[in-house]
Amino acid sequence: MLPGLIQVVGGMVQASGYTPTGVEVTPTMTSNTAPSGYTASGNVGAGAAWNCFDKSSGQDYGALWNPPGTAATLQLLLPSTVYFASYSIQYRTGAGDGTQAPNAWTFQYTADGGSNWSTADIRTGITGWSADEVKTYTITTPIQGNGFKIVGTANNGSGAWYAIKEVRVYS
Q1: CA torsion angle for 111, 115, 119, 125 (degrees, to 10)?
Q2: 140-161 pLDDT tens trace
Q3: Are the C-beta atoms of residues 167 and 150 closer than 8 Å to each other?
Q4: Which residues are CB-neighbours of 83 under 8 A, at least 6 positions away?
Q5: Ramachandran sector of residue 105 (left: φ over 0; alpha: ψ -120 to 50; beta: rest)
Q6: What is the pLDDT of residues 12-64, one digit of tens each?
Q7: Are 77 and 159 in contact (CB under 8 A)?
Q8: Rounded distance between C-alpha atoms, residue 15 and residue 83, angstroms
């Protein structure tokens, strides 16, 4: 395969010869549908899904996404296709004990606007979160898509909430 070509391996779109740039592909959102062309969605909770993409340094509940329960899904559809090479998750400000923080999730992507999803990264047993902490994860093989979602399957012990303050994705 020549560098820069795309191949499908096990249902995943992979880029041959792609070198991650570290450029952020998540926008600064002001609602679930602004800026134009982007659509954020997720479980309903103590904050709208777009709060995870607003790049706010504000305090809790007006600046985070906090659905009830121990599992959650947060999604962002993009207006064009980009590479996904890494991502970061920031825990909330007002819950320093870390029990509402993500413990296990998959990072999934779509190349068709959300009709079909494939898994690009799986994380389990992620503990030790402190207030406002940011953890960054590398996708082993960068993939192309026009949307991503984080499907949380467990938090760190809170039976009531699954809290994420910010998510950023990089090409």
Answers
A1: 130
A2: 999 999 999 999 988 888 877 7
A3: yes
A4: 15, 18, 20, 21, 25, 142, 143, 144, 171
A5: beta
A6: 444 556 788 899 999 999 999 999 999 999 887 667 889 889 987 665 555 56
A7: no
A8: 8
